[in-house]
Amino acid sequence: MSTIxxxxxxxxxxxxxxxxxxxxxxxxxxxVTTTDHKRIGIMYIVLTFVFFTLGGVEALLMRSxxxxxxxxxxxxxxxxxLLTMHGTTMxxxxxxxxxxxxGNYFVPLMIGARDMAFxxxxxxxxxxxxxxxxVFYASIFWHPPQAGWWSYPPLSSKLYSPGGGQDAWIFLIxxxxxxxxxxxxxxxxxxxxxxxxxxTWGRVPLFIWSILIYAVLLIIALPVxxxxxxxxxxxRNFGTNWFxxxxxxxxxxxxxxxxxxxxxxxxxxxxxGFGMISEILPVFARKPIFGYKAIAASTIVIAFLSTLVxxxxxxxxxxxxxxxxxxxxxxxxxxIPTGVKIFNxxxxxxxxxxxxxxxxxxxxGFIVLFLIGGITGIxxxxxxxxxxxxxxxxxxxxxxxxxxxxxxxxxxxxxxxxYPKMTGRLCNETLGKWSFWVTFIGFNLxxxxxxxLGLSGMPRRIYTYQEHMGWSTYNFISSVGAFIMAAGFVxxxxxxxxxxxxxxxxxxxxxxxNTLEWFTTSPPPVNNFDAVPRVRSVEPMRDIRLxxxxxxxxxxxTGGSEQFSRV
Amino acid sequence: MALFLPLAAGIFFxxxxxxxxxxxxxxxxxSPNATAIATLYDIILGLGVSVFLIVFAFIAYSVWKFRxxxxxxxxxxxxxxxxxxxxxxxxTMILVVIAAATFIALPTIIDPPNSNANVGSVLSASLTAxxxxxxxxxxxxxxxxxxxxxxTYGANCNKTAWQDRLPYSYQEMEAPAGEVVKLxxxxxxxxxxxxxxxxxxxxxxxxGFTTYTWFEALHAHELxxxxxxxxxxxxxxxxxxxxxxxxxxxxxxxxxxxxxAIQSQNDQVAQVRRYLVKQGILTSSGNF
Lengths: 567, 288
Known about the structure:
The complex is a heterodimer of chains A (567) and B (288). Chain A contains 16 helices and no strands. By secondary structure, chain A is an all-alpha fold. Residues 1-16 and 557-567 of chain A have low confidence and may be disordered. Chain B is an alpha+beta fold and 288 residues long. Chain B folds into two domains: 4-72 and 79-110, no CATH class; 138-247, Cupredoxins -  blue copper proteins (Immunoglobulin-like, Sandwich), CATH 2.60.40.420. Chain B has helices spanning 4-20, 32-65, 81-110, 248-279, and strands spanning 138-145, 148-153, 168-170, 172-176, 180-187, 192-194, 203-205, 211-216, 222-227, 240-246. At the A-B interface, helix 4, helix 8, helix 9, helix 10 and helix 11 of A face helix 2, helix 3 and strand 9 of B.
C-alpha cells in the first residue's frame, strides 16, 4: 500500500469500542501477550498475593519456632534464611508491586484515560517482577540468602555468605528494581499527560496524587539501591573492596546507601495506601474528604522529607553526634505531615453518615493501627531511646504496625472497595467484616506484645531464647496471634476467590462513589470509556450522578449491598 | 470543653498506670545512662499514650455517633483551615517538647559522672577516643566475633594488650561497682552490636571502626544479661554477654587471679610445646 493510498483512507472521527468474539481456547495466551493495563493490573495483584501467602507462611514458621524457648523446629541457619526470605518477599514482591498493581488498574480509569502511556513497557514491568520472584525463590532449592533483607556486609560478603542465595537476592533487587523503575516512569508520564479534560492538579483524585509521588520516590531511590547491590555483586564476585573492611572498604558505606533507598522505600510502600484510604473514607462517610489540599500537600512533604531521614536506621552505627541530632529532628519533622493526614481522615469521619462496609472497617482499622505505628516511630526517632530499642522486637512491632496494620490493611480495604469494579461482582460483606475482626484481633495479639518483648531486651532476628530471660509468655501470645491473624487473612482470600463466581452482580457504581472508574461498566471494557466526561471537581462521578438525578428526578438505582442517601 | 476535662484526667491516669507497669518501660537503676534513657522514654510514652487516646476517642466516638442508621444525612464540608493549622502547630509543639527533653537529657546519657577513675566526656557510638583529663580510667575492650564477646582489661587494651599481658575473658565481663567503665568496642569479622539493656544503649561493633560507650554500675553483686543485637550469622541467638558487677576490691583481686590463671596456662602450653619440639613432633617455629 502506498503512502498516498494510506493517507487517503477515511480517518475515523469517532472512537468506537470494537467487539471481539471471546476466544474460548488459548485464553492464557491473551493474558501472556496482553498490554491492557487492567489485565496487567490483575496479574500484578494475583501474583503479589501469591507472594504475600509465601511470605506469610515464612512468618508463621518463624513464629512457630519462637513460640516456646529452646525450640528446635528450625535451625539457626534456616531461621536466618526464613527471615531474609520473609522480609525480602513482603517488601520487594508484595507491598511495593501490589501498589503498582492497583495503580496499573486504577490510574487510567481514575484519570479518564484509555490505557497507560506505554502499554508495552507496562507489560515489561510485570514480567520483570515475575522473573525477579522466580530467580529469588529458585534459591530455595540451593542456598537461600541468609543475611537479612538489609544484607549488611561483611555478613553478606563471599567470606561469610558463600552460597549463591546472596547473588540471587542481588539479582532480585536488580530485576524488581528495573520493573518498578519502568513502572514508575510509566505512571508519571500517564498522570502528567493523560488526565481527562478539566482534571487540573487541584481535581486529581488523592489516590492518583499518591501514585504520582510513589513514582517520583521510586525514581529517586531505586538507582541508589541498584548501584549499591552492583557494588556488593562486584565485591562478592569480581574482587572489588567497596564494603570490605580488611581492604579499606566500609560496611558503613553500605548502611548509608542501603537506607538512603530503604527509608524512601518505606514511604513508597505506605503512600499509595494513604491514597486508597483517602478515596475510601469519603465514599463511605458520604461526605467530601476533609482538607483535600492538606492531604495532597502532606504527601509531597512526606516524600521530600523521606529522602532526608535515612540515618535514623543507623543511630547505633559509628556516627558523630551532630549527625544523630540532625536525623532525629528530620525524623520528627516527617511526623507532622503524617499527623496532618491522620487528622484529616478523622475529620472526614466527623459528622458523616458512616456506612460500615467491610472496606470501611478495614480502612478505619488502618487509621487506628497506623496511629500506633506512627507514635512508636517517635520513640525510635529519639536517638538516645533508639540506642535501647534499635534492633529489638520493639522495632519489629513498630514496622509491622505501619506495614501490616498500615499498608496491608489499606490493600485489603482497597481490594474490598475495588473488587466490584475489577470483577463485576460484590464480595460477601459479612465474611469481610468477620475477616476484619479476626485479623485485627490476631494482629494486635501478635505485635502489641512485641513492644514489651523489645523493652525487656529481646533482640530481633534471634532464632531461639532461654527460658530464664522471661520472654516465653509474650512469645507464646505473639505466636498464637500470628495464626489467628493468618486465619483472618485466609477468610478474606477465600472471600475474594469465592465471590468471583458467586458474588452478587455489582453494576457500574455499587458504592455511589466519587471518581471516574465508577463511570464505566464493571469490569470495564478494553477501551475503558467510550466517552470521557469533562471533570469539574475532585468528585466528578458525584457531579454526574447529581446531574442525572436532577434531570430525571430518580435516584440512581445501583446493585450495591446497601442503599445510601447523600445530599 | 466539658468533654475534654474528664478525658484529660483519664489520659493522665492511664499514662501513669501504663508507665508504672513492668511490661512497658525500660530498665532503670543499674547505671545512670540507662536511667536517663528510661526517663526520656517515659516522657515520650506519656505524650504518645495521650495522643493515641485522644485520636482514638475521636475515631471511636465518630464511628459510634455518626453511623449511617443513626445519622443518615452527612454534613457536607470540605475542611477548616484554622483547625488544620492549629492542630499542625499542636503536633509541632509536642515534637519540640520531645526534642527539648532529649537535648536536656543528653549530657546525662553521653557524659559519665565523676568517679575515682574519671574518664571525662565520652561520646556514645563516637569515632573519637575520649581523653580523660586526669589520666585515670578503667578501660575494657570489647571485641565481637562470631559468636562470642571477648573482653580485655586495662589501658591500651585495643593496642598493646598482648605485649602488656593484659587479662582477658570471654562472654562474662567483670566490672567494679561505682566506677565509670569506658568500653572500646571493635569487631574482628562481621557487624555485631554490644548491648546490656540495664547498663545503657547499644553500640554497633563494626569491623574497621572503633566505637566507645560507658557505664557506671551502681550496685555490686549483680549479674546483667545482654546479647548481640545485630544479625551476625547463624548462631546470632547464642552470642550472649554477662556483666558481673563486683566491688572494686573484688575486681582487682579478680584481675590478678585471671592474669595469673592466663599466665599459668601459657606456661603450661609453653612447657608442652618445648616437650613436643624436643620429641621432634613440632618444629621450633611451631609447625607439625
